[in-house]
Amino acid sequence: MEKARRTSSPSWTAAVALVSLFAVAGVAAAGAPPPRRILVDTDMDTDDLFALLYILKQDRSQFDVKAITISANAWIDAGHGVDQLYDILYMMGRDDIAVGVGGDGGISEAGEIHPDVGGYLPLIDQGMSTVGGCRYRQAVPPGRRGGRLDTDTNGGLRRGFLPQGHRGYAPLRQPTAQQVMVDTVSAGPTTLLLFGTHTNAALLLMAHPHLRRNVERVYVLGGGVRVAGNLFTAYGANPFAEFNVFGDPFAAYQVLHSGVPVTLVPLDATNTIPVTEEYFAEFGRRWQTTPEARYCFQSLDLVLRRHRRPAPGLHGSTGYYMWDSFAAGVAFSSMRNGDANGANDFAELEYMNITVITSNKPYGVRDGSNPFFDGRATPKFGLKVGGVHSGHVQTGIGDSFCLVPGSNAGRCQDGYTKEVTGSEGVRVRVATSAKPNPVYNSAFDREFSKNFLEVLNLAKQAGRFNISTQFPYYREVLYKPDFINVSRGKPVIFDMDMSPGDFVSLIYLLKAPREVIDLKGVLVNGNGWANIASIDIIYDILHMMGRDDIPVGLGNTTAMGNPTLGCNNVYAIPLGSGGFIDSDTLYGLARLLPRSPRRYTPESTDDPEHRQPLAF
Question: Would the keyword Signal be found if you checked this record's keyword annotation (predicted)?
Answer without folding.
Answer: yes
